[in-house]
Amino acid sequence: MSKKTDLTNKLLAKIQPEHPLPDALDEANLLEQGLYAILLRRLTPTQAKDTVVRLRNAYKDWNELRICQAQEINGHLELGSKGMLAAAQTREYLQEVFQRSHGMELEFLRDDAQGAQRFVSILPFIGMGTAHYLLWLASKGELPVTPALMRVLDRVGLVARTASPKKARAAIEPIVPEGKELEFAVRFGEVASRWCDARKPLCHQCVLVDDCKHGKKAFRDWKIAQERLEQQRAREAARLAILQKKEDEKRRKEEERRKKREAIEADKRAREAARLAKIVLRKKAEAAAKAAKLKAAADAKAKAEAERVRKQKELEQKKLAAIAERKKQEELRRKDAERKKAEAKKAAEKRVAEAKKAAEKRAAEKKAEAAKRAAEKKAEAAKRAAEKKAEAAKRAAEKKAEAAKRAAEKKAEAAKRAAEKKAEAVKRATEKKAEAAKRAAEKKAEAAKKVAEKKAEAAKRKAEAAKKKAKQK
Question: Is the pTM of this model over 0.85?
Answer without folding.
Answer: no
